[in-house]
Structures are given as structure tokens and as C-alpha cells.
Amino acid sequence: MGHPTAELIAYLREELSAPDRERVAGHLAACTSCRAACEDFRRLLDVLRAPAPAPPAPAWGPYRAELRERLAARTAPARWWRRPVPLALSAALAGALAALAWMVVLPERPRPDATVFEESLRGHLDLIRQRPVVERLDLLEDLDVITQLDRLAAQDG
Amino acid sequence: MLCQRAAARDEQAFELLVARYYQRAYRLAWSILRDAEEARDVSQEAFIRLHETAGSFAGRARFSTWFYRVLVNLCLDRRRKLRWWRRLVVTDGPDDGDGPRETLDRVPAPAGDPLDGLEREQAVKRLWAAVDGLSPQQRAAVVLLVQEELPTSEVAAVLGCSETTVRVHLHRALAALRKRVAKE
Known about the structure:
- The complex is a heterodimer.
- By secondary structure, chain A is mainly alpha-helical.
- Chain A contains nine helices and no strands.
- Chain A has helices spanning 8-12, 18-30, 32-49, 60-75, 87-104, 114-123, 125-128, 131-134, 145-156.
- Chain B is elongated.
- The interface between A and B is large, with 37 and 47 residues.
């Protein structure tokens, strides 16, 4: 049987199952080197359990104030120029949505030929096809634009 | 439960968690990083992660285990990032790799008590200095076991490995410390 080297600490900490504990105890009774190692490990663990040398203490007051500042900075809304959505795409979508609103929300106005809007939207298809970006625009969730995109994409393709 | 309240954006609950854990978090980070500024930064980052992801705490493990895991992972990541820089400025410093590989069979048993002849306080100081020479994983395992008094199963949960791996880390760590003490 090999030396139960990796089990000695678990044995000392009484974390082994009863059969394993018996097996290791039997080995220790017969193996001088493992017994010596086990005894040294016990002493080392005793010393390590004593309070460790204290780390350099930071100023705890500023620590928590600093943490609050970092949190505030992290949770603050991102500045418009740092937003991940490219400005060009935002502008393009804003234009497309404005056109849609003009046609749908204001029905009393004379409606232009639908193809004008479709052509405008088709011009932005490359941008809009960047799905990971588009998916981040919650604004689109409630609109019918996606359905139109599918249809236009089919025509385009 | 505080963590669930923190997950629900209860700022008071979050503040209570910070108050309860910040000193331990800093101490644990320092034990692994051995750099006060880094420990301060990483322990604060752990609380920020806690604030952002408290909702993902499923409650299957103890909160402290979950939080220590976040913290220890941040510490180990930071060590990896700093390794290249430290190699530039430290030529014979602590082993940052996988640590000593002595097995029990290769380590000669010391002739006498490894702590004989040393004052207790000196022994503690020297031993912890020797702990600095262990790999980050070994050091984390030792600190969690002896200072945080976690059972091996929870050390494994914190380090994200099996209990067997933790036992191997601990054995290698103590075998290296034993050898070091025997030399002094």
C-alpha cells in the first residue's frame, strides 16, 4: 500500500470517513516516516492557527467611502459618448423610427408611398443587421420594425 | 436573508454585508496578494461584484463561501496579471508558479521538533514568511483552512476544485513548510 500522503491533513482534521481513518491510522502505526510527517504537520497547523501577523491596516474610514464612490461610478448611467451603440446606428434608427411614427401615429397626414420608407430602411440594413447591437436597443422591442426587416431582408436577398 | 435583500437592491442590507465582511475580505486578499494596495483594491472590487451579482447567489452554499469564491478568484486573476511585472522587479522572490513539488517521500523527516529552538512568536512570523513562498493556490488553501477555519469541502467550493485537489495543495504546502522549517 502506498503512503497516504494527501490524506494526512484530513486525518489530522478528522475529516476522513471511518474506514479511511482506520486505514490511515493503521498505516501510521507501521510507517515511521509518515508518522513523523503527520506529527510535524500537526505542529505546523497549530502554529498556523495562531493569529497570523496582521496585514498593514488600511484607513478603514476612507475604505468604505472609496467603495461607495466606486459603486456610484459603476452604477451611474454611461455618458452618451461612451455608450456602446455606435452613434451612426442610433441616428439611423432614430430616423427610421421617426418615419414610422410619422406614418403610423399621425394617420391624418397624407401617407407617402410606403416604398419611400422601405427604401430608407433598406439603406440602413447593414447597420441594423448587427444583431448584437440591435438587441441592446430595448426601444425596438415594442415596435413592428423587426417584422419589416425580415420582409425587407427577404426582398433584398 | 441579507444577501437576498442585497440582491433586491436593498442598500442597507448591502452596507450590512460590507460592514460584516470588509475586514475579513481585506485580510484574505492580503494573505493571497501580500500587497496592501492590491488587497484594498481587490477586496473593494469583490464588494462591487457582490453588489452587481448578488442575485446569482442561489443559496445552495453558505454566503461566505460564495463571497470568498468571488474574492479568491479576483485575487488569483490579479496575481496572474501581476506576475509578468513582478518577474521584472523580483529576481529571487516567492515562487509564483505551481509551487514546490516535494512529495512526502522526498522530504526527509526533520531530526527533531521543527519548531524547537524558536520562540513561539518568531516561529509564527517565520512560518508565515514561508507561507509567502507558496503558490497562490496553496497559500489560499492554507489561509482558508487555518485562518478562516473552513472545512476542506468549503475550501474546495471557494477554490472551485475538488476536495482531492485541495488535499494535494495542502499536503504540498505543508511539506514545503516542513522542509523550510527543518532548514532553519
